[in-house]
User: Fold this.
Amino acid sequence: MKILVIGTGNMGSAFVQQLTRAGHKVSVTGRDSAKAAQVASRHGARALPVQGAASGNEIVILATGYAQAVDALRAATPDAGQIVVDITNPLTADYMGLTIGHTTSAAEEIARAVPNVRLVKAFNTVFAQLLAAGPDLGAGRRVTTFLAGDDAPAKEAVTAMARSMGFEVIDAGTLRNARYLEPLAGLNIYLGYGAGLGTGIAPTWVRKD
Ligand SMILES: NC(=O)c1ccc[n+]([C@@H]2O[C@H](COP(=O)([O-])OP(=O)(O)OC[C@H]3O[C@@H](n4cnc5c(N)ncnc54)[C@H](OP(=O)(O)O)[C@@H]3O)[C@@H](O)[C@H]2O)c1
Assistant:
């Protein structure tokens, strides 16, 4: 697939690493073009200026902070109907709380602000360190990503992309259910940093057959 990653930080660079490893044609863009070039050259991707970077990609991964997400996405000028993966968590400054929730979510707010794209919430419960290390946990176990979105073909495409990197995928319903996924990431951050379990953890769902 042809995929653009917006953001060259912890998550953006880990996505570039895993997506190129999975054989995708990856471009990366960010505010700092030298950093984008560095991330791209490290992983065999292509660095692009932000303006117009989204054009022609099957999937755009939005890997900026929530506060910058709408501006960054608009600057990349997404195509009409383009699939955009929102990985953001609307965190408070101390990372121990969420700035919005219950009646909306970061995903719904971004979708409202940029309504011509098909937004899928995913990967927000996966620490960057775990993404960079890869989702294979050994003994047949894999890291889970939860997907929430309103467009079935868009979710199928994001599912295929996630599985190509080795993730287990759980369909978490419509975009409104990002209201559940973002607090789940909050709990993951508490357990990882607050409770000291570290960044090698991730939530999943179990079922007794
Ligand atoms: N870190 C994690 O473990 C983790 C896990 C799950 C989800 N998330 C979510 O993933 C997102 C990224 O997290 P992160 O840890 O990767 O953050 P980060 O390291 O701070 O990276 C954010 C990136 O976004 C870029 N950026 C900011 N504004 C931009 C704009 N207008 N246009 C283009 N690029 C812009 C930044 O550029 P500069 O380098 O110029 O500042 C930086 O490269 C956040 O929303 C976070 O909540 C993070």
Observations:
- Strands lie at 2-6, 25-29, 46-47, 59-62, 83-86, 118-121, 136-138, 141-142, 144-149, 168-171.
